[in-house]
Amino acid sequence: MWKKSIVLSLVVILLLAGCTPRAKGPEITIQDAWARPSAGADMNGAIYFRIMNDGDETDTLLGAETPSAQAAEVHESMADDNGVMSMKPRENIEIPAGGEVEFKPGGLHIMLVDLKKPLAVGDEVTLTLRFEKAGEIVQTVKVREP
Fold it and tell me: How many angstroms separate the first and last alpha carbons of the chain?
């Protein structure tokens, strides 16, 4: 009889352990992704989107890649005090728990460096985003006018 009680107690403990609330961690999704057509002889392009983190833990975008270009780099456009626009590479974009980060014209974007062919409206680009905790997320991005 005591053996049955011990086994039953162990089963109950294991069941309860499996029912305890756990942290969700980051829950990353990519929304509204689009690429701008490349202009004339310019063999660079840009991709924009929103990164949503519906989890309870911050995650970090570490980088990007695509087979459509020699490189895919996180860049940020900004204006100086005279209104002159410039761009600089960015690393480690933090996506806060329960928050979002928008990649948009005039701000953060993925710069496609040395495109293998020009991007035209209707084309699709495969983009892989690499996150510290969520791992790799592959996104198909349509080329469209802004």
Answer: 74
